[in-house]
Amino acid sequence: MSTDWKTLAASLFPDGHTVVEQDDFLTGTAQLDGDAVTVIGTTGHAAIGVEIALLQAQAILATVRQHPQRSIVILIDTQGQRLRHRDEMLGINSYMAHLAKCIDLARRRQHKIVGLVYDQALSGGFITSGLMADGCYALPEATIRVMGLAAMARITKVPEARLTELAKSNPVFAPGAVNYLQMGGVEAIWQADLAQQLVQALHQSSPQDRRSAAGLQRGGRSLAWTVTQAVIDHAGPP
């Protein structure tokens, strides 16, 4: 059973918050371990169109301008980018890239950023939010995938039955929080005291990308870190 955002916010921020929802967009401020944090996110399996992408980017930039180095928490429940002709013609890819750049800017300005998948995270809506954070976490019931096996079969021309079989032993092909934990995309799966785990995640937050190394250590991605290091070694110092 999925967790609704109000219940989640109460668990994450027992000292109080002002998070509100409008048209599936979440925004507000919360008190955590004696400090104020900015909260943004989505709910209702939001399809990320140009409007929500801009609203999230605006909230990030406002925090950078008005509250230097304030921590940012991103609550994630999205079905991915909105698949409409209107959004495509407006250049939804550019809007989502803008959101990703704003999060990257905040990280470079020393804002600690933590993402939490509390319901579902799909496709570009996840790539430009949770996967741009310093660390991304998930609740046990979260659904995470970039592409469903049926769609993957259509794109790769590999029979869906074969992909289903591969998914049993290879997390790259399989959706779910546990598989993304194995691949390093998710840092940890949270249970019990969510507020304390969020505090710990922010304290441990680092701008260094450790996902490839984590994927290798956990057995979910055997080559990503090795290939990355080979490229770095070949390129040499800047």
UniProtKB/TrEMBL annotation:
The keyword Lyase applies. SUPFAM superfamilies: ClpP/crotonase. One of its GO terms (molecular function) is lyase activity. Keywords: Lyase. Transmembrane segments: none annotated. Its EC number is 4.1.1.88. This is Biotin-independent malonate decarboxylase subunit gamma. It comes from Collimonas rhizosphaerae.
